[in-house]
Design a protein that fits this description.
- By secondary structure, this protein is an alpha+beta fold.
- It is built from 17 helices and 20 strands.
- The strands form four sheets. Strands 1-3-2-4-5 form a five-stranded mixed beta sheet, sandwiched between helices.
- A hairpin with a 3-residue loop joins strand 11 and strand 12.
- The longest helix is centred in the last third of the chain and has 49 residues.
- The protein is globular and about 85 Å long.
Length: about 650
């Protein structure tokens, strides 16, 4: 159930409750569009999914929302078909990032899901799930698989029926597939009305840790927070240790936040102090030392940490997914799926099961009151998340070109309006013709190999000719890549000469020359084509020719409509930095550059706040463009589940919106 706020007196009571430091649960306030009392956000879904741990209110946009805004701190109001979850505590308005206003932006289901996530995180922080209401019973079952990119786990209960484990209620922001695995036997507290299963365990005591890890032994730890002189490391999601710069490096000039990043998984030595306390040290860990297995965060679960798997991992673009990535147990029966469909009615949204279903389809399913998951919904392998990541005492991982890409030209220079040297153009056209001839020759030889099967000598001769043609093709590809680079250099030289000519003709009263980027921008019909051209030029300038096979520029990538607009107002130096950062992101080099400070954007400022995800599962990432300067620029981009990238926009340091 939810409460309608329809009078000024009710608005005052709502404001008093939101300010009350003794409030025991989060309150969620939803506003309707202007001119109607019917909300776009799924108010009934909110009441069903979070009504047991939060209160839900509905207020109409207009005079009532203006009155409510006057009674709340600045920027904490609710209006215009949006919603907000207000946490508990002495000062629920201390941090705006913890209580974000969720607009629909044409996708009411996404806004509803965001509010569910916000409210559950606030309820978990308030300790509501540590209580044991009458509806909670202890059950056992088997983990069958994961949904919603690892934020939900499906459990088949021993007594029949299905339940779900929510990431927000376990060890946020740790993904569930770090602590659970398909086929794992599980025990937890089941809330029968919502079918949510709580499997959190109490953190291990110091005595348990000391027995598990003898003095001087090495295990893995997660870097949770970093500053210039300190870092917080976790051996368990709820068991942390604070270390200083001296524990990491003997160099007094080193800064902790340049050696470690939040989300790193590092090897740490466990020290037993004379007082009986435990301490962690990173500075003297050798690469070849044995590493004891990390703790399991859940009963019967796998070790929650793994080397080279940071918390802020990105999807790699290689296709190396193995059998371990399969998250669906084929043993699940049709009966079990049917039971899940009946059980999930009160506990899951439609898009929990249909990751590619649009809002309209999800609403239609909800209206029909039925969910019909098929085994294909769970049988899709999840992409691998680990990426190489440097750390203290660890060797920097280097990505090598795979055989499938070793002979390919990593980048194709698109048409450019600037003229180039005729001799270079002729050479380029000649190379392209020889390339076509080599391909045609290989095709003919392959046809002859199929037809000529009379003698072994004929086959050997034809195979030798085919190998010769392949070598010719490879040489042509190398020459083509070299010529393309030469053409790009000639264009840069021509631009430099034209700029010098303009400068030589200037008089004292002549205006300053126009921006180099503005000059090139005027040559393109639309801003998107210009941006792609500048990124291509930056790639040629940024990546040495010897490294271009290792760091190719993708043939295709996404550009939001706001990216080109966000470049306006930047000077040439800032534009150059922005395009260099774009190259680092698109090629994947950003994962090896600590100065970029790559990390996922969260829905709030707290370390437990969930990552900012789009409806299609894309994760919003943030990298640094400038350092140590006022309003330093940052770049936001979407990292899609398939590994591709969509650049969103350039922002200032304080802008945390996607």
């Amino acid at each position: 159930m939810y409460t309608r706020v329809e009078t000024s007196s009710a608005v005052q009571q709502l404001a008093i409750g939101l300010h009350d430091p003794a409030r025991d649960r989060p309150w969620v306030v939803v506003s309707s569009p202007f001119g109607t009392a019917v909300p776009e956000i799924g108010i009934d879904q909110l009441a069903t999914q979070i009504g047991d741990v939060a209160r839900v209110f509905l207020v109409q946009t207009g005079e009532l929302t203006r009155q409510l805004g006057d009674l709340l701190p600045a920027q904490f109001q609710v209006y215009g078909s949006a919603g907000r979850s207000y946490p508990t505590g002495p000062n629920p308005f201390a941090d705006l990032a913890r209580s974000r206003l969720r607009f629909t932006h044409g996708d009411p289901q996404h806004a509803t899901d965001q509010l569910v996530t916000d409210a559950l995180a606030h309820a978990h922080h308030a300790g509501l799930f540590a209580l044991a209401p009458a509806s909670v019973i202890t059950v056992t079952g088997t983990v069958k698989g994961f949904m919603l990119h690892g934020s939900r786990a499906l459990v088949e209960l021993d007594g029949g029926g299905m339940a779900t484990i929510w990431q927000e209620l376990t060890y946020p922001p740790v993904p569930l597939d770090w602590t659970l695995s398909p086929g794992q036997r599980i025990q937890g507290a089941l809330d029968a009305p919502t079918h949510r299963l709580n499997v959190e365990l109490k953190p291990p005591t110091t005595e348990v840790i000391a027995e598990r890890y003898p003095h001087g032994s090495v295990t893995l730890a997660l870097v949770q927070k970093v500053s210039a002189q300190k870092a917080v490391l976790a051996l368990h999601p709820h068991l942390t240790f604070t270390i200083t710069r001296a524990d990491i490096s003997a160099n007094p000039r080193d800064l902790v936040d340049t050696l470690l990043s939040e989300g790193d998984v590092v090897a740490a030595r466990v020290m037993h102090l004379p007082s009986g306390a435990l301490h962690l040290v990173l500075s003297d860990v050798d690469d070849d030392e044995p590493v004891l297995p990390p703790l399991a965060a859940v009963l019967n679960g796998p070790p929650w940490l793994r080397e080279n798997r940071p918390l802020l991992a990105l999807v790699e673009d290689d296709e190396t997914a193995g059998a371990d990535d399969l998250v669906f147990d084929p043993a699940m029966s049709a009966t079990g799926l049917a039971g899940f469909a009946r059980a999930a009615g009160a506990g899951l949204a439609a898009d929990d099961l249909h990751g590619e279903t649009g809002p309209a389809d999800a609403d239609a399913d909800a209206g029909a009151g039925a969910m019909r998951p098929s085994p294909a919904d769970f049988a899709t392998p999840r992409p691998t998340l680990p990426r190489p990541f440097p750390g203290p005492g660890r060797v920097h991982a280097v990505r090598r070109p795979t055989p499938a890409t070793a002979g390919a030209i990593p980048f194709r220079v698109g048409p450019t309006p600037a003229p180039c040297a005729p001799t270079s153009v002729s050479a380029l056209q000649s190379t392209q013709l020889s390339l076509a001839e080599a391909k045609a020759k290989i095709t003919r030889l392959e046809a002859q190999l199929v037809e000529a099967g009379s003698t072994e000598s004929d086959l050997a001769r034809l195979r030798e000719q085919a190998r010769s043609a392949q070598l010719q093709l490879r040489d042509a590809l190398v020459e083509l890549g070299t010529l393309r680079h030469t053409v790009a250099e000639l264009r840069d030289e021509q631009r430099t000469q034209k700029r010098m000519l303009r400068e030589s003709r200037r008089t004292v009263v002549a205006p300053a020359p126009s921006s180099e980027y503005e000059t090139r921008r005027a040559l393109w019909e639309d801003a998107t084509s210009w941006v792609r051209h500048e990124i291509a030029l930056a790639w040629v300038d940024r990546v040495p020719e010897s490294d271009r096979e290792e760091w190719p520029l993708p043939h295709s990538y996404g550009l939001s409509d706001r990216f080109a607009e966000s470049l306006s107002g930047l000077d040439d130096g800032q534009l150059a930095k922005a395009f260099k950062a774009s190259v680092d992101v698109l090629t994947g080099r950003v994962k090896t550059l600590q100065g970029r400070h790559l990390h996922a954007l969260r829905q709030g400022a707290g370390p437990a706040d969930p990552h900012l995800l789009r409806w299609d599962g894309a994760r919003c990432m943030r990298v640094s463009i400038e350092q140590n300067t006022p309003a330093a620029r940052r770049m936001h981009f979407w990292q899609k589940p398939d590994g591709s990238v969509e650049l969103i926009r350039i922002v200032t340091h304080d802008d945390m919106e996607a």
